[in-house]
Amino acid sequence: MNININKTINELTLDEKVSLLSGGSAWYTQPIERLGIPHVLMTDGPTGLRLSKNQVSVGEETLGNIEKSTSFPCSSAMASTFNQELMEEVGREIALQFQEHGVSLLLAPGINGKRTPLCGRNFEYMSEDPYLSGKMAVAYIKGVQGEGVGTTLKHYVANNQENKRFTVNAVMDERTLREIYLAPFEMAVKEAAPWSVMGAYNRVNGTYCCENNKLMLDILRDEWGFDGMVVSDWTAITDKVGSVKNGCDLEMPGPSMRDQEVLDALETGVLSMADLNDRVRRVLQFVQRALMNKKEVKVDYARAHEVSRRAAEESTVLLKNQDDILPLNSNLKIVVLGEQAADVMQGGGCAKLDPERLSPPLDELRKRNPDLVYAPGYTGDAPDEKLINEAKVAAADADVALVFVGTTYSIESEGFDRAHMRVADSHLALIREVAKVNKNVIVMISSGSAVEVHQFDKDVKAIFQLWYPGQAAGEALVRLLYGEVSPSGKLSETYPVHLENTPVFDNGHVNVEEVEYKEGLFVGYRYYGTKKIPVQYPFGHGLTYTTFEYSGLKLSQRDLKNGDQLEVSLNVTNTGGVKAKETVQIYVHDVRSQYPRPEQELKGFAKVELKPGETKRISATLDERAFAYYVPHLSKFAVETGEFEIRVGADSRDIRLTELVRFESQDGVTIPLTDRDSVLDWLQNPETSDRMKTVMNDKFGGPYRTDSSIFCIMSGLTIRKFFDQSSLLCPGHNVDVKKTEAYLTGNSE
Ligand code: GLC
């Protein structure tokens, strides 16, 4: 069906237009039967189709029982694959299930920055690093939209905590907003063109996102050229007229109770008809896109399950493998402990699905070890002595104890933040007690974000971070445990040692109406690395069953200018005995900048599979943006002239090769000097240094010593004082103030 949008806009009554700016119900757009405009269905992800059975019927929809669908690993897991092709494949499979159920818009991906590991919704977000988040979001969007289903980039922007999420005001400087929280949205909008963007609940610098002119119009539309639809988060609209005026196209859920406010605003001129028609056009264009991309699909759920299994395999991160206890020898007697072994954890809230099949680790381990002993070890969050003792007895009689722990639905979920960074206390108690009777403990952690492990990491031989691994969890884990596939996940977020080490800990993020992002750019490894703070496991960390050697780093050029692309290439060799995949990470270090910058930032990565002894050459391309930062006095991203270190690493702290490049930039990043800046500032500033040296030579009647006491005193003077006081400071050396000023302002003939 093809809607003639201009004709439709002309035929719509005013009431019909206003009604289009909110849903026809909780999950549909508004139909206009009179003109044959149907409604369009949308629902959540991000890890699969979450469709309640009565969503499909019109009328009152509730979040009743959910249709079965394939459950894929959560977003923090998928980001840990560092595998864009696999992300795209998962996106395609999810989209096919949306098509099969007639759903046109997937309310995902979520790419909010992980400012603190405590955010209850971190499992739905990709990474602490904006580049990784952006690249994985691009892959997800391309996969989904390639199958004719729209995506919704969310939550725009700075929805970085669940506590008070409907009202909290995120207060931050422009560089932090641009370089950390907006950056992944900018990348995704520019590189993948999502059909829609979801306005977040919270405020940014005092204004609610859904009515934030700067975010919704100046940046998203005018700067980035976004041409899709802006949809509010559910019930996020506080000022209906303000949201329409400032660029929010569709209020969800619908229908709105405040259409009359819009009509009144049109009457009084607060809202223009042009504004109204623009928002109506966006909604109609979305409906048009949805209708034109619908297709009949018969989903191959077995294939989808296989994709989910590969995703779980590649997202699982091997954090520790002491004494190379892994992979397991299949004749070892194992015991399986922990209730989570019999389940597959998901994140709580609107991302929770009803998996169309389930492979819990316990079931899969039993297939390989029919007589294995299992003990739940805990039930709920409080330690249970009886269950622990039962587990200890079982563990004492086994070669290896597999212990399943993590967060629980009462610890980590949408709607609230974690109160601590530990796994459940009952899980901790189980690990500690079992480690007393078995020296070969292997811990599996199911969580959406980093947890503390210092309470037990010395007592156990190996640790896997499973994240929330999706319905194929068991099949994937068994293949990883027994070495049928080597682990290849790398942490998409830092594992701090203690919550108290995190940059946000003393920033009181948890329960206040206003949160000042005092840590600024320094989140995640940008904080721990720059401040040299020890971490449990660094960003990008992940072990495997072989070893890799990096060599032959080559750069396409050493001297760069604006518009250049730098190709970085190197050899990676599998120097061990089993096939495995390695993710090579490329970080950029700005040797010297006028504004503070993180010590290094991820600007490229490549994943490669290598057989034993095999060498492959991998390459990645760094564009100008890889060197740029947001320069406040230019109000744009720009490169500062200078040297940059290209660092190639296996993780953010395991840098294997480095090379230096020089970037000659025409961006004029030099902070403009004023007469309040010092003589020394003028001497050190590349653009004024020569002129200033001439003036100083004049004053001193020739070359001057920078270690002389008079120089040291004068160099701290503001340049204004320098003019006014110089003859006093330097008797006998009259300084022609006009001439000096002309020199300094570059107006000397
Ligand atoms: C929520 C979430 C959003 C979700 C929407 C619909 O409250 O914040 O991510 O897509 O409602 O369920």
Essential attributes:
single chain, 749 residues, alpha/beta, 6-stranded mixed sheet, 5-stranded parallel sheet, 21 helices, 19% strand, binds alpha-D-glucopyranose
Describe the 3D structure.
The model has no long low-confidence stretch (mean pLDDT about 95). About 30% of the residues lie in helices and about 20% in strands. α11 (about 300-315) packs across α15 (about 475-480). It is an alpha/beta fold and about 750 residues long. The N and C termini lie far apart (about 70 Å). Strands 10-16-15-14-11-13 form a 6-stranded mixed β-sheet, covered by helices on one side. It has a 5-stranded parallel β-sheet with strand order 1-3-4-6-9. Alpha-D-glucopyranose binds near residues 107, 234 and 350.
How much of the polypeptide forms β-strand, as a percent range?
Answer: 15-25%
Number of helices: 21
Small molecules bound in the structure, each named once: alpha-D-glucopyranose
Q: Per the principal axes of the C-alpha atoms, what is the gross shape?
A: globular
Q: Give the strand order of the largest sheet, numbering strands 1, 2, ... along the chain.
A: 10-16-15-14-11-13
Q: What structural class do helix, strand and pairing data support?
A: alpha/beta
Number of strands: 27
**Poorly predicted runs of 5 or more residues:** none
Q: Note the main sheet.
A: 6 strands, mixed
Distance between the termini: 71 Å
> Using only CA atoms, what is the Rg?
29 Å
**Would you tell me the overall average pLDDT?**
93
Percent helix among the residues?
25-40%
